[in-house]
Amino acid sequence: MKTWEELEKLQPKVLKIIQNSFKKNRLAHAYLFQGKKGTGKKDAAFLTAKSYFCEHLEKNYKPCGQCSNCKRVESGNHPDLHFIEPDGLSIKKEQIEALQKEFAKTGVESNRKLYIISGCDQMTVNAANSLLKFLEEPTEGTMAILITNQVHRVLPTILSRCQILTFQPIPPKMIQQELEKKGTPSHIAALVSQVTNNIEEAFSLSRDDWFAEARTKVIKLYEVLDSRPDHALLFIHNHWVPFFADKEQMEMGLDFLLFLYKDLLSIQIGNEDDVVYLDILPMLKQQGLKLGQRTVLHQIVSILNAKKRLNFNVNPQLLMEDLVLTLQEG
């Protein structure tokens, strides 16, 4: 679970709204946290729960982290905090009914209760209707936090009874910085931050040996195209196709190649701060001077077209052979 300061860096607007609600004692009885996966919604929900139950709030909004309530929320053992997530593929009516029975009881520690429903868009129709009744008649001291990655799938009647807080995608530079703080090499962190804006997924990819090797393969292909173009088709046959073995891997390989050619364009227009392949910057600079912007743009379009063709189940080897021939032509 992230601290207030950590989440504030990632989602400043959301944390400011929650902060002001605590300070002014104007907490809503129901919140809906919506945004893409990995944007900190679940962490923010539990952080809000810590503030809700904290015995010694700092500055009237920030949980102290030391009291028994904070520690029990942190460990998942607070008796008046209930967490629901899909049971299999959905959240079922029985789960909501069990929650309602719990909330009919007096709070164990105080008159406050809070429930978090993660993946609220995955509720069955019956579960959603049961929750709606619960939201329409909230008991005093009860707070709900609903979490969704797909707000369009939540019933409008539920949305109308919640204060909706939108979690923004995390900027690539911020993801890169977070990875580097954890010891990820800069050249890996820079590429990972372009592939996903999900911090959890970014951490996973940054430690994936296949990801690092895929990056190396892409650089090697670029070097072959630049210095030994007559070996490019052989490289595709012996090294590229066997490594990028399925459609998902092939698409990622094309994305990596696309980022490299975009780096060339960034260098040409004077935006070196946007370069992803930092460790080969000198080579890219040299190549950027030799090629015109129109040539690089044509190469970028060629890679994008290859990605489109991949979705039409074109033979991967033929697709890559066509692509390298096009890249050679410039």
Describe the structure in your own words.
With 330 residues, this protein is an alpha/beta fold. The chain has two domains: 4-169, Rossmann fold; 208-329, Zinc Finger, Delta Prime, domain 3, CATH 1.20.272. The chain contains 16 helices and five strands. The chain has helices spanning 4-10, 12-23, 41-53, 68-75, 93-104, 125-136, 156-159, 172-181, 186-195, 199-206, 209-227, 232-243, 247-268, 281-290, 293-310, 316-329; strands at residues 30-35, 81-84, 113-118, 142-148, 163-167. The protein has a five-stranded parallel sheet, sandwiched between helices. The mean pLDDT is 92. InterPro entries: DNA_pol_HolB (IPR004622), DNA_pol_III_delta_C (IPR015199), DNA_Rep/Repair_Clamp_Loader (IPR050238), P-loop_NTPase (IPR027417). This is DNA polymerase III subunit delta'. Its EC number is 2.7.7.7. Residues 246-328 form the DNA polymerase III delta subunit C-terminal domain.
